[in-house]
């Protein structure tokens, strides 16, 4: 298809205009974070981040976020590999019904479960603990992970599984030695998505946590934005600190983010 | 459902068990408990009182709740309708022109999707502030009378929150539609052109029917996102000013943990869940029928 010069210029204008609209708010906050402190602290540039880190206690919050994210990613991906393998390659009674049960979890909004979860965990004395933040998110990610890996194992594995069986490999060895290694791209997609969802999650930590030491980064930022009222610079620096880890991963693995969020959305 | 490869294997249950235990305990059981709690009037502390379906009746009866669902409807316009319209125009134009730098463009417009909503909220609260960048621009171009504290304004707070939704959903929708349009075979355009179709006729005859599936996915995703606007409202407006930006998912939190109306909160959560299920199934069924 050939377009006229005028049309082509028009297209670039549209492209750039929309790109600027998408980037504008991000640029605004990054620029504010590096600018001179409007709260009268006298710092600017990278020094803002040091001061925000200290005043906002982001070290504590980031540590908690890393711990929660790593736990949720590792546990939910392991459990999803096992369940996705079973649903994708084995036949057993009730597999269909059980799989639909997992699909419910993909659509279920956190708002529906967080209320009963809080009161039941409170009865058990488990609110305000690390597990109360991590385990509900493991459950949510396992629902998606099972769906995601079942589709992968189903599409790729028939001949592999049969060949492995002819070679006398058991189901456990077949999974870890034959199926998992070539599944790396699908697994990377799952890992980055679960990491992003967990890192960015807000409602669950907000409800479950009261101790300051258990606040995740977004929760800490929300509190910081409520309490720190002298100027925007340090708040912007805090926001950049909280947002950067996922953006960094996105910068390197953006294909996985886009493919995962779009294909994962097509949930039959 | 076609049967998966391999012989029947009981061992499958053992592989599913760990996932099912966590999933059952932290998602399925709480969902059941939400339904249970929704039948009670309970403040979270003292003994609850069984009230049957009255909490559900309140979703229709209670003016505040009706308003919250109405606000969600307004947000759907900003989160779903506008992004799909803008996305269709953008993607069609970009697809026709085959401009360079499309990959980079994709990366940029998708970026808002990966940023924590709290960070997004902090950024936009600054943009909308009385002395923020938006008002600076308005004053610079002589529109001083329009400048205001956008999030504190009864009439403008809800649309202002909605525009944030338009901002982060349009990129997602555009990328999704671009992927769909890239799959349209070139012969279809040629056939339309031989029939004498201009760009607009071509859009309705070739492009629109081909991306029905993508539109369905985009609508599903963005409508659900609109219904689940919690973080953004919590950080930008806390439902205010007054209750002008209260939405159902904010009401769940507000009622359960601030007002001590746990049963009502659970009922709203259950309604949200049913709404999301209905929309997901409904939109997909509609798309299937129209492509068949």
Question: Can you give me a brief rundown of this structure?
Answer:
Chain A has 268 residues and is mainly alpha-helical. Helices cover 78% and strands 0% of the residues of chain A. Chain A has a domain at 66-219 and 252-263: MetI-like (MetI-like fold, Orthogonal Bundle).
The CATH homology group name of the domain at 66-219 and 252-263 in chain A = MetI-like
What is the radius of gyration of chain A computed over CA atoms, rounded to a whole number of angstroms? 23 Å
Using a beta-carbon cutoff below 8 angstroms, give the protein chain pair with the largest interface and the number of residues from each chain: A-B, 100 and 99 residues
- Here the CATH topology of the domain at 66-219 and 252-263 in chain A equals MetI-like fold
Q: H/E order of the elements of chain B? A: HEEHHHHHHHHHHHH
> What is the C-alpha radius of gyration of chain B, as a whole number of Å?
23 Å
Number of DSSP-assigned strands of chain A:
0
Q: Compute the separation of the termini of chain A in Å.
A: 34 Å
Number of alpha- plus pi-helical segments of chain A: 12
CATH superfamily of chain B: MetI-like
Strand percent estimate of chain A: under 5%
Q: If you average the pLDDT of chain B, what whole number results?
A: 91
How would you describe the overall organization of this protein?
The complex is a heterodimer of chains A (268) and B (292). By secondary structure, chain A is mainly α. Chain A is built from twelve helices and no strands. In chain A, helix 1 crosses helix 12. The longest helix of chain A is centred in the N-terminal third of the chain and has 32 residues. Chain B has a single domain, classed as Orthogonal Bundle (MetI-like fold), CATH 1.10.3720.10. A two-stranded antiparallel ribbon of chain B has the order 1-2. By secondary structure, chain B is mostly helical. At the A-B interface, helix 1, helix 3, helix 4, helix 5 and helix 6 of A face helix 1, helix 3, helix 4, helix 5 and helix 7 of B.
């Amino acid at each position: 298809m050939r377009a006229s010069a005028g049309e082509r210029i028009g297209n670039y204008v549209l492209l750039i205009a929309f790109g600027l609209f998408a980037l504008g708010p991000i640029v605004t906050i990054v620029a504010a974070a590096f600018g001179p402190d409007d709260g009268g602290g006298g710092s600017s540039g990278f020094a803002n981040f040091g001061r925000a880190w200290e005043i906002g206690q982001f070290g504590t919050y980031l540590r908690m976020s890393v711990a929660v994210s790593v736990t949720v990613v590792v546990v939910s991906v392991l459990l999803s590999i096992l369940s996705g393998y079973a649903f994708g390659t084995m036949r057993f009674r009730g597999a269909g019904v059980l799989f639909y049960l997992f699909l419910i979890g993909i659509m279920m909004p956190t708002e529906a479960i967080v209320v009963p979860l809080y009161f039941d965990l409170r009865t058990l004395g488990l609110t305000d603990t690390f597990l109360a933040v991590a385990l509900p998110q493991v459950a949510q990610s396992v629902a998606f992970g099972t769906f995601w890996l079942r589709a992968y194992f189903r599409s790729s594995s028939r001949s592999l599984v049969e060949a492995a069986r002819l070679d006398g490999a058991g189901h456990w060895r077949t999974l870890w030695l034959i199926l998992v290694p070539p599944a790396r791209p699908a697994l990377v997609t799952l890992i980055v998505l679960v990491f992003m969802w967990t890192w960015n999650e807000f409602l669950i930590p907000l409800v479950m946590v009261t101790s300051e030491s258990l606040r995740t980064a977004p929760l800490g930022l929300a509190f910081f934005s409520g309490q720190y009222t002298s100027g925007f610079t340090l708040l912007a620096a805090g926001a950049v600190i909280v947002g950067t880890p996922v953006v960094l991963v996105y910068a390197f693995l953006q294909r996985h983010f886009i493919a995962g969020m779009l294909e994962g959305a097509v949930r039959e | 459902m076609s049967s998966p490869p391999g012989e029947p294997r009981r061992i499958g249950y053992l592989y599913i068990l760990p996932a099912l235990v966590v999933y059952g305990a932290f998602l399925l059981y709480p969902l059941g408990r939400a339904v249970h709690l929704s039948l009670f009037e309970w403040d979270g502390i003292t003994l609850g009182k069984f009230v049957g379906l009255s909490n559900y009746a309140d979703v229709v009866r209670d003016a505040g709740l009706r308003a919250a669902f109405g606000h969600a409807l307004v947000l759907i316009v900003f989160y779903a309708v506008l992004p799909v319209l803008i996305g269709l125009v953008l993607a069609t134009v970009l697809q026709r022109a085959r401009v360079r730098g499309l990959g980079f463009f994709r990366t940029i417009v998708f970026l808002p999707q990966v940023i924590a909503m709290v960070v997004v909220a902090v950024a936009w609260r600054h943009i909308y502030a009385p002395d923020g960048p938006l008002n600076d621009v308005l004053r610079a171009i002589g529109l001083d009378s329009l400048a205001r504290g956008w999030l504190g304004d009864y009439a403008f707070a809800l649309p202002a929150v909605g525009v944030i939704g338009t901002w982060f959903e349009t990129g997602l929708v555009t990328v999704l539609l671009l992927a769909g349009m890239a799959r349209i075979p070139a012969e279809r355009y040629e056939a339309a052109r031989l029939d004498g179709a201009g760009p607009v006729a071509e859009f309705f005859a070739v492009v629109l029917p081909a991306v029905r599936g993508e539109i369905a996915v985009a609508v599903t995703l963005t409508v659900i996102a609109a219904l689940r606007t919690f973080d953004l409202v919590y950080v930008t407006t806390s439902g205010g000013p007054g209750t002008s930006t209260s939405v159902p998912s904010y009401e769940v939190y507000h009622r359960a943990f601030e007002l001590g109306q746990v049963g009502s909160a659970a009922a709203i959560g259950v309604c949200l869940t049913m709404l999301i299920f209905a929309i997901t199934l409904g939109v997909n069924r509609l798309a299937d029928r129209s492509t068949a």
